[in-house]
TrEMBL record:
Pfam families: QcrA_N, Rieske
Record-annotated membrane-spanning stretches: 64-85, 97-118, 170-189
Full protein name: Cytochrome bc1 complex Rieske iron-sulfur subunit
Rieske domain boundaries: 254-345
One GO cellular component, as annotated: plasma membrane
Keywords: 2Fe-2S, Cell membrane, Disulfide bond, Electron transport, Iron, Iron-sulfur, Membrane, Metal-binding, Oxidoreductase, Respiratory chain, Transmembrane, Transmembrane helix, Transport
Species: Paramicrobacterium humi
Role of this protein: Iron-sulfur subunit of the cytochrome bc1 complex, an essential component of the respiratory electron transport chain required for ATP synthesis. The bc1 complex catalyzes the oxidation of menaquinol and the reduction of cytochrome c in the respiratory chain. The bc1 complex operates through a Q-cycle mechanism that couples electron transfer to generation of the proton gradient that drives ATP synthesis.
Superkingdom classification of source: Bacteria
Xref: InterPro entries: QcrA_N, Rieske_2Fe-2S, Rieske_2Fe-2S_sf, Rieske_Fe-S_prot
Topological relation to the membrane, as annotated: Multi-pass membrane protein
Taxonomic lineage of the native organism: Bacteria, Bacillati, Actinomycetota, Actinomycetes, Micrococcales
Keyword Signal part of the UniProt annotation: no
Amino acid sequence: MAQDDNSGKDLAAEDSSAHIAAPGASAGTAVVSSDAVKNPGLPPHRKRVTDLDPKKQKHAERTVFTLFYLSIAGSIWAVAAYMLFPIDPSDLGSVRLNNLFIGIGIALALLALGIGAVHWGKALMADHESIDVRHPVRGTEETRSRAVEIFDEANQESGFGRRSMIRNTLIGALIAFPLPAVALFRGLAPEGKDTEPVALLNQTMWKKGLRLTRDPDGTPIKASDVTFGSAFHVIPEGLSEIPHSEGMLEEKAKAIVLLMRLQPEDLHEKEDRKSWSYDGIVAYSKVCTHVGCPVALYEQRTHHLLCPCHQSQFDVTNHCEVIFGPAARPLPQLPIAVDDEGYLVAQSDFHEPVGPSFWERH
């Protein structure tokens, strides 16, 4: 028993000595000794098959510029498909064919361009590790000269200046790739004669005697229906009866109006426009003069109209003058009156083009 007691004391002494040898160490603290594992460094560089075999390098080069050629072909095909497979609004099958073939062309152009660029970098560009030392401030003239040398070295390593087929096909693919987008966006513009934007936006469906109706059901609006502080979304009479295929959406986009009623004494009207309103009821185009968003938010207390897209604000009491935001001019006012039955009617069309101001620039 005495021996067991002594051995227990010896173990306790060893434990205490261990704590003394590593001051500040706890039961969960690892003590790093001097023989820690050293950094093994990078593994030996393995050359690619294109670095070892000139035939493989040539094959990779042909693959890259072939992919760039395919990208050019895809871009050209997308433009051709846009013309060969036009959309017929009455035939959904034409929409599917148009989207399918244009999509195939754009997908081929983008994928071939991306895969070719990746394969070029992996198989042909210089394959070695390097360290790029960066300076926090602009360098000296010697440093800038060295930068030019680095660009030259990059050119040599990538082979951009030396491999003319890859360079030329890459440039061709990059030039051809945006062409489908140009063709598609061009199709959004009106076609044929008399398509100058200012002329198109200067003429809407509104004309003398045409009744103001609710959007979208086309119910005519009486002056007595418009209470103080109210706002009505308005379209011309007969617009809701026009089929979509005959341009109903285009006409509505130009002719939409917001109708409001204020106290007559709150309106600060110009002398030549006092006849454009009726007993405090005014009508203004809903098409914002910034980029054409619908101005549909009416603040009753301040009599301000707000465009939700870019926060342009218009003062209804002062002919919808711009009081805030990027819009460049007031909203066009629609002259209104009341017919024999008490319905609100237009006196004429707008006296200026509706929509964004940039259409008026020549």
